[in-house]
Write a structure and sequence with these properties.
By secondary structure, this protein is α/β, with parallel strands linked by helices. It is 29% helix and 20% strand. The relative contact order is 0.17. The structure holds ligand MGD (2 copies), iron/sulfur cluster and molybdenum atom.
Length: 669
């Protein structure tokens, strides 16, 4: 038995350190690494039995070729030679007949590493294929935050111990920030208050002193009204804002119209609650807002985050330890030179850009461009996770489309493939990882051999490049060699670290940079930007979200049992979730004659999805919530919740607006 350090590869802010015990090519035990200062040995239940995913009976172990109709799910094993030859023959024909704009590489966050996540870019740059705009998650949040703060690092969760008042704003921390829950629990034990602002509070309510339920997509109005009260009552730190920010005075003038009474009408939060919250926030010395990403996935999502970011600095909290905003990028990096992986220099044309959220339109040829003829999907499950599910499925059924899916399991997307290629797990490859929630970076080595004929993303792209006739030496290197090259050419944040820290990366491990200096504003002017003239809307203000004609606002919330569609292969995790449920408020259920456990149909102009109703008082009136992503096999009519999601983008950041759709719900008779 051997024990190895490795890193959780999934799309989660913590990149927990793991200790993995292996017997030959079998992983027998996985536990948290107590030496990792972020997770302190605490890992989530999903990764406790990582080995059950790695050695699952359901893993795809050979390349497969479709034998039935598209989407029917019938395949037969083929050799790697046949798979690579079939794919590259098709690519060459498409390049000749249509051109590189008809080839779309499609990936997102199945593996969050630097090499195996981004390595396909080098091949597709070389080919001149489409370039995917990867904004499926929190790009509106990033754009809203940086519109105010530029590259200034926000709070690392480890700094929350110094805060004296907490607002958990639209984050199910129990599911998505498990490691920071201990800080919240400790804070409350020591008498500090925690307030939750959520549209759906079932998981978090018992961990907070107060729950404020808000109509989805209206958080910007709440932030504005809080700033109205802070300004009116002399609780804004005027000296700080005049000195450190651009545009405070003109913004303050606009606040007069954003009264708590106005905000009550928009948000559904009583004016008295808004006033009280603003006073409490203003009285705290180092209040921290822990911001989730849910409220950024709206048509007004970038503006919402801009307003919450300004609020976080409105009392001068950023200048005091523990005060400010957590959850928007704590800084750290660059650690390695990504261009050594993605190789933009290999591209000789101007890429056609396709937004990841608009796959259905791209497949249908609706964006005024040629329709996509070859789709190459890896580390992503768009049928389950991207908006407009029925449009995507229609596109995948097109007989003229050639689809390759590189996967570990028969996902809802893989079923529509013409060729499936068997993929690897993190412990079967070498890579490096940057955390998006903490100031850290780590490297992980291969621990076991891949089973069957599974190959890593990079091994496959190398084979494809060779078969395409690309002679660039880049495609000769293994992942180990690429990792060595990255570590041999460190970027600024690695260079700051002592030699011993860098050595620990060579053997697999993580390194930590200092927390950001939160008042060293990394913006062009060296000041915070309350007013930002670079934007189409320089003055922060209330924007409506996209909305729609149906009465209920539909949002998605993360499930603690799964991570987007990852872990759906694990019966031990998904069985406990039961059927696909839609959570709705008692009053909204009663007015429709719906009781807990009823079969219901949620519908809008895009389609219908069947759910089981769960009736709750911990969801905002007028909101309905689909918790977690499901396999279509668990859906009562085969449709998943993303059937009800439009492809519309956010105000800034070109991001998903997954939480900004309206529906009506009826009892399924
Ligand atoms: N267990 C588990 N862990 C995960 C994930 C998972 O699916 N499961 N997902 C991973 C990924 S990809 C990411 S991006 C991260 C973060 O994942 P996110 O999905 O961003 O989750 P949270 O940050 O917890 O924020 C989502 C919360 O926003 C709320 N919400 C939605 N709309 C609104 C609104 O308009 N206003 C307010 N106030 N609240 C709203 C939802 O009710 C939900 O509780 O977590 C990662 N970790
Ligand atoms: N309804 C609903 N939709 C959502 C969300 C939601 O909460 N609800 N969350 C949204 C968010 S925040 C995000 S970030 C996206 C994420 O959406 P996706 O990017 O689709 O991520 P996952 O659903 O985790 O699926 C990733 C797939 O990658 C595969 N995979 C893992 N590692 C590798 C590898 O090394 N190589 C290859 N080839 N494949 C690999 C896994 O087996 C898995 O099937 O979903 C979004 N969509
Ligand atoms: S999924 Fe998140 S909480 Fe779980 S082990 Fe991975 S990084 Fe840690
Ligand atoms: Mo995400």
């Amino acid at each position: 038995m051997t024990t190895h350090k490795t890193i959780c590869p999934y799309d989660c802010p913590t990149t927990c350190g793991l200790l993995v015990e292996a017997e030959g090519d079998r992983i027998v035990k996985v536990r948290g690494d107590a030496d990792d200062p972020k997770s302190r040995g605490l890992i989530c239940r999903k990764m406790h039995h990582y080995e059950r995913s790695i050695h699952s009976q359901n893993r795809i172990l050979t390349p497969l070729k479709r034998t039935g109709a598209k989407g029917e799910g019938r395949f037969e094993p083929i050799t790697w030679d046949e798979a690579i030859d079939t794919i590259t023959t098709r690519w060459k024909r498409t390049l000749d007949e249509v051109g590189p704009d008809a080839i779309l590489p499609f990936y997102y966050s199945g593996v969050m590493s630097f090499i195996h996540r981004f390595c396909g870019d080098s091949l597709f740059n070389r080919m001149g294929a489409c370039s995917l705009v990867k904004t499926l998650c929190a790009s509106a949040k990033g754009a809203g935050y940086s519109a105010v703060m530029g590259k200034t690092g926000c709070l690392d969760p480890r700094e929350l111990a110094d805060s004296d008042f907490y607002i958990v704003w639209g984050s199910n921390m129990k599911a998505t920030r498990l490691q920071s829950m201990a800080d919240i629990v400790a804070a409350r034990k020591s008498g500090k208050r925690v307030v939750l602002i959520e549209s759906y509070a079932e998981d978090m309510a018992s961990h907070c002193d107060q729950v404020i339920l808000i109509k989805p997509g209206t958080d910007g109005a709440l932030a504005l009204a809080m700033m109205h009260v802070l300004a009116e009552e002399g609780l804004a730190d005027t000296d700080f804002l005049l000195k450190e920010a651009i545009g405070f005075e003109s913004f303050r003038e606009t606040l007069t119209s954003y009264t708590p009474e106005w905000a009550e009408g928009v948000t559904g939060v009583p004016a008295s609650v808004i006033v009280e919250l603003a006073r409490e926030f203003g009285a705290a010395s180092a209040p921290a807002i822990i911001l989730g990403s849910g409220n950024s996935r709206h048509g007004n999502g970038g503006m919402t985050v801009r307003l919450i970011t300004i609020l976080s600095a409105f009392t001068g909290a950023w200048a005091r330890p523990g005060g400010g905003l957590c959850g928007c990028g704590p800084g750290g990096g660059p650690f390695v030179d990504m261009a050594r992986i993605t190789r933009p220099d290999l591209r000789t044309n101007t890429a056609r850009k396709v937004n990841i959220n608009q796959l259905a339109s791209a497949l249908a040829g609706e964006d005024g461009q040629a329709s996509i003829r070859c789709l190459h999907i890896y580390a992503c499950n768009p049928v389950s996770t991207v908006c407009h599910q029925q449009g995507i499925v229609r596109g995948l059924l097109n007989p003229d489309l050639f689809t390759v899916v590189h996967e570990r399991f028969m996902t809802d997307t893989a079923r529509y493939a013409d060729i499936i290629l068997p993929a690897t797990f993190s412990v079967e490859q070498a890579d490096c990882y940057g955390s998006y929630g903490y100031c850290s970076f780590g490297a992980a080595r291969k621990i076991i051999s891949a089973p069957g004929e599974c190959k890593s993303n990079w091994e496959i792209f190398r084979l494809l490049a060779k078969a395409m006739g690309y002679k660039d030496s880049h495609f000769d290197r293994t992942d180990e060699e690429l990792l060595e090259e990255l570590l041999a050419h460190p970027e600024p944040d690695l260079l700051k670290l002592p030699e011993e820290a860098l050595d620990s990366l060579r053997t697999g491990g993580q390194v930590f940079t200092l927390f950001a200096d939160h008042t060293d504003w990394e913006t062009p002017s060296g000041k915070m930007m309350i007013v930002n003239d670079e934007l189409a809307t320089p003055m922060p203000q209330y924007l409506e979200n996209h909305g729609g004609e149906y009465p209920l606002r539909l949002i998605a919330a993360p499930s603690s049992a799964t991570l987007n569609s990852t872990f759906l292969e694990r019966e031990d995790l998904v069985a406990g979730r039961g059927p696909m449920t839609l959570v709705m408020h008692l009053d909204d259920a009663a007015s429709r004659g719906i009781a807990d456990g009823d079969s219901i149909v949620a519908f809008n102009e895009l389609g219908e999805v069947r759910f089981e109703a769960r009736v709750s008082s911990l969801v905002a009136r007028g909101a309905v919530v689909a918790v977690g992503v499901f396999h279509s096999g668990r859906s009562m009519n085969g449709n998943l919740v993303n059937t009800l999601h439009h492809e519309r983008l956010s105000d800034i950041g070109e991001a998903t607006t997954l939480n900004d759709n309206t529906v009506e719900v009826r009892k399924d008779l």
